[in-house]
Amino acid sequence: MDGLWQLVIITGAGRGFGRASAAAFAQANCLPLHLVLVARSENELKAAKEEVLEGSVVRPKDSAMQPVVDIISCNLSNLELLEASVESIYGVVKAGGRAYDRAVFVNNAGSLGPQQVRV
Ligand SMILES: NC(=O)c1ccc[n+]([C@@H]2O[C@H](COP(=O)([O-])OP(=O)(O)OC[C@H]3O[C@@H](n4cnc5c(N)ncnc54)[C@H](OP(=O)(O)O)[C@@H]3O)[C@@H](O)[C@H]2O)c1
What pLDDT is attached to residue 62? Predict the structure, then answer.
């Protein structure tokens, strides 16, 4: 594919804000687009990828202009594995041999922890 790519890396992309952001990027017509979705749950990442591709502005589904979506399952809270996790992300970015025009990093992974509801 000709042209420079947009790279968007989203942590916490399996559900919630991260997943919604991934879908929004795919609908924003900023193609060609390489999305890298990161979270721990591989099942949620697979579902997020499917949702992103279903909702992409590009039709038909098998078009060469579909976003490229890579998923990476890793625990970003595990500091011992952090370097390996970052290498995995860097690996999928490098692997495609694409030239990027711009890169966006949505560092969204996190948890609010236990919440108390007051009524
Ligand atoms: N929702 C709110 O009202 C609110 C308010 C203030 C701030 N925030 C912050 O906004 C962000 C998104 O919130 P949300 O409501 O969309 O949360 P969410 O629905 O719980 O989604 C969090 C995402 O982060 C991933 N994640 C969590 N810990 C991770 C880890 N250690 N390594 C890799 N991925 C991890 C989760 O997947 P896995 O569990 O599979 O890893 C999930 O995909 C969070 O950082 C949250 O603290 C939310």
Answer: 56
Q: How far is the CA of 3 from the centre of ligand 1 (A)?
A: 33
* Mutation test residue for ligand 1: of 86, 108, 115, the one with most atoms within 8 Å of CB: 108
pLDDT digits (tens, 9 = 90+) for 87-110: 999 999 999 999 999 999 999 999
Q: What fold is seen in the domain 5-106? A: Rossmann fold (3.40.50)
For residue 114, cis peptide bond before it (omega within 30 degrees of 0): no
> CA distances (Å), 64 to each of 11, 75, 89, in order?
25, 32, 23
Q: Where are the domains of the chain?
A: 5-106
